[in-house]
Amino acid sequence: MELRVSHLCKAYDGEPVLEDVSFTAGPGVTCVMGPSGEGKTTLLRIILGLEKPDSGSVEELDGVRLSAVFQEDRLLPGRTAPENLRFVLGAAYDEAATKSLLQELGLEDTENKPVREFSGGMRRRTALARALIAPFDLLVLDEPFTGLDMDSRRRCVEAIRARTAGKTVLLVTHDESDGGAFAARTVRLKK
Amino acid sequence: MASDRGGRFRLWAVAVWMAVWQLGSMALDQPLLLPSPLTVARCLAALAGTGAFWSAVGGSAVRILGGFLLACVVGIACGALAARYRRFGELLSPLLASIKAVPVMSFIILAYLWLPDKSLLPLLIAFLMVFPVICGNVLTGVRETDPQLLEMARVFRVPLSRRLTGIYLPQVLPYFRTAASLGLGLCWKSGVAAEVISLTAGSLGERLYQSKIYFEVPELFAWTVTIVAVSVGFEKLFLRLLDAFAERMGG
């Protein structure tokens, strides 16, 4: 799919957060960069349909399957990692595929533990596993590597590469090296 | 009588108060006014050996817990609807406040006058005492649901049935548990009071009233102990079942 964002504007209490943002993102990774407070998360929330822009538009996303890693982990705290994945998949839940993905992300041997007992890095990887296992046409990743050590980060990058071939991925980050890891196109937000 | 730091009883503290009761009874030396714990225990043992005792316990349990369960069902439904539809919440609010403010005895007397079938009085009173507590707590629980989790479910297009079990239920269960614990105490107190007023045939309230009429003070104490024991027993059983359910739901 091709994501087309045209002339997006958004302000909170008269304070502009997004001003005339336009870009196109096709299959592959598109990196949205900019310092904190430049409206990256607001942009993603508009794309995910969680907020409405004051003006401008995002190409009609009806029928497009979305998946996301949010800025916060947003996991069901009392449930295990596989149960969190099952929550978004329902009947499509595949135990073998889940186990394999969790293993790739270094989350093996955590199957009986509720995620509230996970470390911050483990929760982040579980959130990524949930986003990658859900069927999607557009994957939105908001600072997905926050709090990860080098090894975990490498595992996550490899898992994203392996599971997003031919798909449209929007990666929001403030770290230049994140885009480099995927040879991504870059959209820079600035006021 | 499990001992923990959660406000439950320590065995030694119970023993001290039993000793105070025993000493008070000995000092007063008027068994008709204050029988000793031993006299009450003997009376209770004698009562428990009769079919009428268990019939009274069973009959009251069915009526009072019937009112409690009905209040749970209606309270959960109304709480959820009030959280979903603001106008419904606004409509319900004065009713809940009124039920909470009106003395239970006013309800009992009014309902006694209005109800054609007086045996329904304990059920209705138990319902009225529990309903606002359950409804209010469920409403708070739903309103406190993490909006970030709801957004997540929206993005992943998780159907309502799975959102209910995965997000709302674990969030609301602790609120419901608190309300149920409070409600189970309330429903027995008010339900037995209604039985006393309406003299419901074959009920704990009727037996309590008869003990008073015939000045059978040890029996009065024995029936009171029975009511407390049944109330506490049901509360523990219900909360244990609820906790097991909450654990299964990942709450």
Q: Could you describe the 3D structure shown?
A:
- The complex is a heterodimer of chains A (191) and B (251).
- Chain A has a single domain (3-188), classed as P-loop containing nucleotide triphosphate hydrolases (Rossmann fold).
- Helix content of chain A is 32%, strand content 26%.
- Chain A is built from 6 helices and 8 strands; from the N terminus they run βββαββαααβαβαβ.
- In chain A, α2 runs parallel beside α4 (120-133).
- The two termini of chain A are 28 Å apart.
- The relative contact order of chain B is 0.13.
- Residues 1-5 of chain B have low confidence and may be disordered.
- Chain B has helices at 11-28, 37-48, 51-84, 86-101, 104-114, 121-143, 147-155, 160-198, 204-213, 217-248.
- Chains A and B meet through β5 and α2 of A and α7 and α8 of B.
CATH homologous superfamily title of chain B? MetI-like
The CATH architecture of chain A comes to 3-Layer(aba) Sandwich
Oligomer: heterodimer
Uncertain regions spanning at least 5 consecutive residues of chain B: 1-5
CATH topology name of chain A, in short, is Rossmann fold
Q: What structural class do you assign from the helix and strand content of chain B?
A: mainly alpha
- Cα-to-Cα separation, first versus last residue of chain A: 28 Å
| Strand percent estimate of chain A | 25-35%
The first-level CATH class of chain B is given as Mainly Alpha
How many strands in all of chain B?
A: 0
Number of domains of chain B: 1
Which chain pair shows the most residues in contact? A-B, 21 and 18 residues
- Contiguous helical run count of chain A: 6
Helix and strand run of chain B: HHHHHHHHHH
> In percent terms, what proportion of residues of chain B is strand?
under 5%
Main sheet: strand order of chain A: 5-6-7-3-8
**Sheet having the most strands of chain A:** 5 strands, parallel
Globular, elongated, flat, extended or rod-shaped: what is the shape of chain A? Answer: globular
